[in-house]
Amino acid sequence: MRILFLGDVMGRTGRKAITDRLPGLRSDWRLDFVVVNGENATGGAGITPDHAKSLLAAGVDCLTLGDHAFDQKDMLSYIESEPRILRPLNYAKNAPGRGARLFDAPGGRKVLVAQALGQVFMKRPFDDPFSAIDTVLKAHPLGGLAQAVVIDIHAEATSEKMGMGHWCDGRASLVVGTHTHVPTADAQILTSGTAYLTDAGMCGDYDSVIGMQKLEPMRRFVTGMGKERFTPAEGEATLSGVFVETDDRSGKATKVRMIRLGGRLSPAMPD
Q1: In the chain, which end has fewer C-beta atoms inside a 10 angstrom radius, N or C?
Q2: Which of 68, 140, 179, 181 is an active site residue?
Q3: pLDDT digits (tens, 9 = 90+) for 230-251
Q4: Is 196 buried (19+), middle (13-18) or exposed (0-12) by CB count in 10 A?
Q5: How many C-beta neighbours within 10 Å does residue 167 have?
């Protein structure tokens, strides 16, 4: 199976990059399944139903969220009616929506997608992500019920993301980190066959401070005082993420490539 995961969509410029380019990429790269983290798609804080609909219409099969899952209050009700949107597994117990789902893929195949929030350096003490993911993986064995398994670990600490990768090695097709908006250069296939990338980066304008216009973040770093609200940068976006090929029988990864397309970052595309 040919799977594309794209990192955190940042504001209008990130949305536009996906809606403009993803339909062509699905065809050109013969993609079977596309997962996108959309938790910053609306003004850098959450995602509205309308913006979610536009990304899904562009060819996204699954939208994952994160710690900003419900910053846009309409998502509280919309997520109950749209099964293609996932919030973190270990969010509040009474949160609406689901944190994992088995999706249909071409040829009668199934793809499990799950997301968990990290605990290290996060603002809230979320439940243990390792136990949450473990429960889902035991219920959906790789190569059995699911021909592919994608895990989005939404976390600050690279060590915690790496721990999740090794925790899932051999039980997932791909473990990929999100949240920091900074892409890492460590795409690899782990010992037991799981593709791994510490952070997919963002789909947004990299002439910025993690997707925000530069002046206000720099002012706060220098003076310790805020003057204005953070505003997403609106230059040309780079699509950033990871491409994985898997073996349908075992579900394990056979190829992994970082994706950098357009904008300011050097291009990297699948073979």
Answers
A1: C
A2: 68
A3: 899 899 999 999 999 999 999 9
A4: buried
A5: 18
* Cα gap 46→40, rounded to integer Å: 5
Q: Is 68 a catalytic residue?
A: yes
Distance of alpha carbon 185 from alpha carbon 193, whole angstroms: 18
Taking CA atoms, 33 is separated from 2, 75, 106, 198, in Å, by 7, 23, 8, 20
Provide the pLDDT for residue 115. Answer: 97
Give CA–CA dist 96/252, Å, rounded. 31
Every domain of the chain and the residues it spans = 2-204+236-261
The reported pLDDT for the residue numbered 210 is 87
In angstroms, what CA-CA distances link 75 with 34, 102, 151, 235?
21, 21, 22, 27
38 vs 48: CA distance, rounded Å? 10
Q: Give the DSSP H or E segment for 14.
A: helix 11-28
Global pTM value: 0.94
Taking Cα atoms as reference points, which of 205, 124, 137, 129 lies closest to residue 174?
137
Per-residue pLDDT tens over the stretch 126-184: 889 999 999 999 999 998 989 999 999 999 999 999 999 999 999 999 999 999 999 99
Architecture of domain 2-204+236-261: 4-Layer Sandwich (3.60)
β-bridge mates for residue 112, sequence order: 102, 149
Are 51 and 42 contacting, i.e. CB atoms less than 8 angstroms apart?
yes
CA distance 102 to 109: 10
**What is the pLDDT at residue 199?**
98
pLDDT tens readout for residues 169-206: 999 999 999 999 999 999 999 999 999 999 999 999 99
